[in-house]
Specification:
Blueprint (H helix, E strand, L loop, with lengths): L12 E7 L10 H17 L3 E7 L3 E7 L7 H18 L9 H5 L11 E4 L3 H17 L14 H6 L23
Antiparallel strand pairs: 1-3, 1-4, 2-3
């Protein structure tokens, strides 16, 4: 089995990609959004962090977090968010994907892919690139032709805060974040 080495910087800012099992399109359904919102809120109250940005696509999400100054434990937070989502989603009628023999053996549900992809944000330019990639992602995947037309994105908050112009992303191409589409 591969050994995953993650960068852990106390108080760091991180870009994450988290993908559903078999890329099942569950995150933008009413049930998926409700369960994810509740699971993230529960984790924020349990182990606070700053949710800098987020975009939900049908089969994956991107988010940028900043952790508290003495804290680098994003893995436990993601495990609890995914677990809380899974429990709520399945108990409220959501259907999981096909479970492999390995998942059966380990009594794992088939809602999320194992693990997640993480990138430590290095500086302000890197943060801007990550935020641009995150907010432009619905256009990249052909879900909308204008960033402003996508409802499940922190882009609208960034427009209200004066960080983006409402028409941002209409004609631009987005800078790449290498590895962001890791699976």
């Amino acid at each position: 089995m591969s050994e995953f080495i993650r960068n852990r910087e106390r108080g760091g800012t991180y870009f994450f990609t988290v993908v559903t099992h078999q890329r099942r399109p569950v995150l933008t359904t009413a049930l998926g959004r409700t369960c994810l919102r509740a699971s993230i809120a529960a984790e924020l109250s349990r182990a606070p962090f700053k949710l800098d940005a987020i975009v939900l696509l049908p089969d994956h999400l991107h988010t940028v977090w900043t952790l508290p100054i003495r804290d680098a434990d994003y893995s436990t937070r993601w495990a609890r968010i995914k677990d809380g989502f899974t429990r709520s989603y399945l108990s409220n009628g959501g259907v999981e994907g096909e479970r492999s023999a390995n998942r059966e053996k380990h009594r794992e549900r088939a809602v999320w892919q194992h693990r997640f992809w993480e990138h430590t944000v290095r500086d302000g330019d890197d943060l801007e690139r990550c935020l641009n990639y995150l907010h432009w992602n619905p256009v990249k995947h052909g879900l909308v032709s204008r960033v402003a037309d996508y409802p499940w994105s922190s882009f609208h908050r960034y427009v209200r805060d004066g960080i983006y112009e409402p028409h941002w992303g209409n004609a631009e191409t987005c800078p790449d974040v290498p590895g962001a589409e890791w699976e």
